[in-house]
Amino acid sequence: MLPRVGSTMLCSLLEKTKVFGFPDEYLNPRGPMQMFASELHSSCFSDYWRKVTVSKATGNGVFSLKISYGDFHPLLNVSPLSQILPNARFIYLDRKDVLAQAISLQSAITSGVWHRDADGNLFRSISKAGPQYSRHALEMRIQELLLQKAQWESFFLIYNVEPLRIMYEDLEENISDTIRRCLDFIGVTSQVPVERIVPATSKLANEVNLAWYERFQSEHSL
């Protein structure tokens, strides 16, 4: 999954099915991995990975995680992927509007606000100053996001992986259909009432995002 394009919302929705594991950033070395390792009293990576894949699986044995390409790539240099993630299936969450994605990323980085729950309360976030607009920074974010997309596509091609492709815009438009597609993709047969599942997170984009969008476009008109 690509990070910061609605993956938190999608993961929270899938977790509510109670048959899709508890998807989280178990391999993110910038905080989450250390938090889970401490929780599980792990002595080394192999011990941590054994414990997390068991303790964070649902009763049907499904373990899931969300991961950026930067955090995923080191696994390819350690051992065969089939040993770390046996029978792995990939759900690739993308976004059509890369500029809007870059704006959301820049806003989160400069404000410290990455997630809000359904009531609007912050979680896994440390609010700093308000979001800071920067034309140069947004140009860099766009390049970073496009590079990540290319890296994932390269991995899929080289390793002959056919992921389930989901667009953030489609997720927003039809949550129930997206959940069904994910469940069907991993072969989970259940009577999950997907129509009743609602997001546990709040959308962060607001009028500031729109203002940045229009400003950036006006600054780059030919």
Question: Can you describe this structure?
Answer:
It is a single chain. This protein has a single domain, classed as P-loop containing nucleotide triphosphate hydrolases (Rossmann fold, 3-Layer(aba) Sandwich). It is built from ten helices and two strands; from the N terminus they run H-H-H-H-H-E-H-H-E-H-H-H. It has helices spanning 7-15, 32-39, 45-55, 69-76, 81-84, 98-111, 135-158, 168-173, 175-185, 207-219; strands spanning 91-94, 164-167. A two-stranded parallel ribbon has the order 1-2. Helix 6 packs across helix 7 and helix 6 crosses helix 10. The chain is globular.
**Number of structural units classed as domains:** 1
Could you tell me the number of beta strands?
2
Residue share in helix: 40-55%
Nearest-integer average pLDDT: 87
**Fold-level CATH name:** Rossmann fold
**How does the major sheet shape up?**
2 strands, parallel
Concise account of the structure shown:
This protein has 222 residues and is mainly alpha-helical. It is built from ten helices and two strands; from the N terminus they run H-H-H-H-H-E-H-H-E-H-H-H.
What tags apply to this protein structure?
222 residues, mainly alpha, Rossmann fold, two-stranded parallel sheet, 10 helices, 2 strands, 49% helix, disordered N terminus
